[in-house]
């Protein structure tokens, strides 16, 4: 994986976990926060951490913020600072701005001023938890659009030992299998003759409604 440069502004709970994960994956991460203790605490899990106020253009430019591939604005509670920071970053021509929103209105403003990706951590996590409760077979998913998902699900038990051709999942459920995860391997575009095994995970694509029906099979 190519190494990219990320700046995470706001080292609260959300910013910290984004920064930590990127750093663990070998990416270059600059952590920025107003508060000295937050910056000190971040030192072990980022490439560099600095105290700065992201609502001051000079502070941002002196950090060379325009050289970063992606800037994550993880300021939540101080909505004014979050918005001002995104406006400044946008004006400076940052390639990719990701911003955390506390609620719908905040998110709409962030989108309107040009954030490339607005994240609603609480809403999204709440939906994930509910989806997991509703269909325990659903392990992981990506929302492609409002109606379409890619979902990773454990196979319905009665499908083990059968091949994809005889199961005819696409015709019966309107769901396509794009890959099978087997132990640590992944079989991409499995052939129709592939026999499903009890521990297999299916990577499926389809409408949420069709996927929900498919993943509720016993
Ligand atoms: P979380 O819910 O993820 O913990 P918070 O909103 O509580 O998020 O934390 C946001 C962090 O952003 C805090 O550590 C705060 O000090 C920092 N922060 C707020 N405003 C600025 C700013 N203008 N510049 C840099 N950091 C900021």
Automatic annotation (TrEMBL):
Residues 3-119 form the RCK N-terminal domain. Gene3D superfamilies: NAD(P)-binding Rossmann-like Domain (3.40.50.720), Regulator of K+ conductance, C-terminal domain (3.30.70.1450). Residues 139-218 form the RCK C-terminal domain. Pfam families: TrkA_C (PF02080), TrkA_N (PF02254). GO terms for biological process: potassium ion transport. GO terms for molecular function: monoatomic cation transmembrane transporter activity. Transmembrane segments: none annotated. InterPro entries: NAD(P)-bd_dom_sf, RCK_C, RCK_C_sf, RCK_N, Trk_Ktr_HKT_K-transport. Signal peptide: none annotated. PANTHER family: KTR SYSTEM POTASSIUM UPTAKE PROTEIN C, POTASSIUM CHANNEL PROTEIN 2-RELATED-RELATED. This is Ktr system potassium uptake protein A. The gene is ktrA_2.
